[in-house]
Amino acid sequence: MRVLTSDLETGGIGVINILTNKIVFELSRQLRFKKTHSLESLGKKLYVQKFCYFERDGGHYLIAGRKGLTIQIFDVDDNFKLISTKQLMTNIDLGDFFVTMEVMNGEFRACTGLGYCYFLRLTALMSSCFNDFSMSFGLHGSVSFMKFLPQSQSSLVIIGGKDREIAIIDVDSHLTIWKSKTSKKIDKLYQQYMTKEPLWVQDVVITKETDSEVKFIAATRFGKLLFFNTQVSRFPIDEIEISENPIKHLRLLNDTLFIADSFDNVILFDYENQTIMNKFHMKTGALSSLDFIQMDQHQQEEELSRRSESRNQGFLVYSSSHADRCLRLYKIEDGYKSLVHGIRFSNGPSTEICVIEKNIIPDVLKESQSQIVNQNKRMRL
């Protein structure tokens, strides 16, 4: 199994083999900036913010989105050869950044923090001499997330951000299908003398989607969970204060919400019963990046073959910690987490990770408990 990491200090990309704890290939800053003219001297500023791994025509590719809205495409099968570099803006804008990147239906789709959306054909994107930005448009405001609704034929997205109501938009017609409302509107002059929490939705997870309704849970920047049902109301139907700290990560693992804040606190929340399953610490930090892998039935049987008790389906969580420069692999089962593997970086902090070859998991899980304990002692994880 390989994990892609980005280096904040050099702007480079590392490919780490989890089974051997060695960096099997590393793209230097000079190589990465070879075709981007004067960007070489700005390597630290133009660090990688988002990875997007995809398959096309039997090949495997990686898109790296850098600060300043520069994207680079690498051929994973050809030793991570750089095949294309694109600058999405006419000038490099260091004040903008990627909040989401994905490949769907032969298109590269991305949204930036300043509200610029790009829908580019892969054929044009992977060509070094052709640009096609015909499907690019702006959302006019700050954006923290943009997600496509799974059942919407890839045309409906849900967006939100700082000082922005949550909205469901049809990207084909640019029409707003649904928009949330704040619980109360107060005159601006009155707000100057009252303490009012700003509107800032950090992320959402979709819990149910039909032709007539969408149910989703939104996490605010200030530790609250907002429950919405588009068929019932434009206001939140429920609200829970889940953390005192800013929420950094929100993921839906089956019926469980994985919530991580900026101070290494993780909460597993059963959203159906609205109960907290467990709380624990996971070394992530404010600038961490996480990637999740769901253990399939075959992997689950191999892991449980040595034990008599039965457990629910488990998940693997890769966490890159910005503070101590470590990459960790955690296993979560039945509301409990255990550290499986850890690697300490020798270079700079990692700003983004992306797991590829996700089906090669059992060898890592078969590592003996004594080896894990000894490794943890050496690393002081």
Return residue spans where pLDDT drops below 50 for at least 5 consecutive residues.
18-42, 297-301, 303-311, 360-364, 366-373
Rg from C-alpha positions?
Answer: 21 Å
Structural class: mainly beta
- Compute the average pLDDT: 73
Count of distinct strands:
28
Helix content: under 10%
Note the overall shape: globular
Q: Largest sheet, described in full? A: 4 strands, antiparallel
Strand arrangement within the widest β-sheet reads 3-2-1-28
Protein name: Ribosome biogenesis protein NSA1
Function: Involved in the biogenesis of the 60S ribosomal subunit.
Family: Belongs to the NSA1 family.
Subunit structure: Component of the pre-66S ribosomal particle.
Can you characterise this structure?
It comes from Wickerhamomyces ciferrii (strain ATCC 14091 / BCRC 22168 / CBS 111 / JCM 3599 / NBRC 0793 / NRRL Y-1031 F-60-10) (Yeast). The chain has six helices and 28 strands. It has 381 residues and is mainly beta. The chain has a domain at 33-140. The strands form seven sheets. Strands 3-2-1-28 form a four-stranded antiparallel β-sheet. The relative contact order is 0.11. The model is unreliable at 18-42, 297-301, 303-311, 360-364 and 366-373 (pLDDT under 50).
